[in-house]
Amino acid sequence: SEHHNWSIHYLKPQHLDPVPSDIAISRAQPPKDVEQVAKEVGVLPEELDPYGRKKAKVSLDVLKRLQHVKDGKYVVVVGITPTPLGEGKSTTSIGLSQALGPHLNKNVFTCLRQPSQGPTFGIKGGAAGGGYSQVIPMEEFNLHLTGDIHAITAANNLLAAAIDARMFHESTQKDEALFNRLCPQNKQGRLRLRPWKSGFIRHFR
């Protein structure tokens, strides 16, 4: 049954005094293999898309398989002004999950957005939490994760290049010349278009 508590083994951190830096804490704690985590929480192998040994995506098919299971509670952490030491939304969210999971034996996941690289390299820094309430490995979470942030970067660059090219051609060519470049005629000097394109062109010419 999916209703019972997960049979999950939580890793115990090695608390040091004085408390070291966030990056030192992250690197001192070896993370558990993601396939082992999936097994402990009941995610099937065919529902897991691993990205190496520490990261993975979970298929939305798991929602269909568990649609008969009673919904859990959803806690939203928003609108926090970080303290001078940096405890903000991410640190609070992770700390809350640590309290509910290892200490109270509740089934719990922390859902965080993937940080963008601008704030990560700026004054704000990353969004992995801090101290002993952080996502590990910190570098993987802040910089790469599953590569989606790089796909967004590539798409943004493509759009910027397309807009630049459009502005360049529109500034150097009249509409008729630009239209002929975009919709060239065939060898017989005719413009052959699909029906919906013909209506679109008649509307704008």
Report on the structure:
Pfam families: FTHFS. Keywords: ATP-binding, Ligase, Nucleotide-binding, One-carbon metabolism. The protein has 205 residues and is mainly alpha-helical. It has two domains: 22-146, Rossmann fold, CATH 3.40.50; 150-182. It is 43% helix and 6% strand. It contains nine helices and four strands; from the N terminus they run H-H-E-E-H-H-H-E-E-H-H-H-H. It has helices at 22-28, 34-41, 61-65, 89-103, 117-120, 138-144, 148-172, 175-182, 195-204; strands spanning 48-51, 55-58, 129-130, 133-134. It has a two-stranded antiparallel sheet with strand order 1-2. A two-stranded antiparallel sheet has the order 3-4. A hairpin with a 2-residue loop joins strand 3 and strand 4 (133-134).
CATH topology of the largest domain: Rossmann fold
Task: Give the beta-strand count.
Answer: 4
Radius of gyration: 26 Å
What portion of residues is helical? 40-55%
For the sheet with most strands, the description reads:
2 strands, antiparallel
- In the sheet with the most strands, the strands line up as 1-2
Total tally of structural domains: 2
Instruction: Summarize the helix and strand pattern as letters.
Output: HHEEHHHEEHHHH
CATH superfamily of the largest domain: P-loop containing nucleotide triphosphate hydrolases
**Inertia-based shape:** elongated
User: What is the CATH class name of the largest domain?
Assistant: Alpha Beta
Which structural class fits the helix and strand makeup? Answer: mainly alpha
Oligomer status:
single chain
Mean pLDDT: 83
End-to-end distance, in Å?
65 Å
Strand-residue fraction? 5-15%
- Architecture (CATH level 2) name of the largest domain: 3-Layer(aba) Sandwich
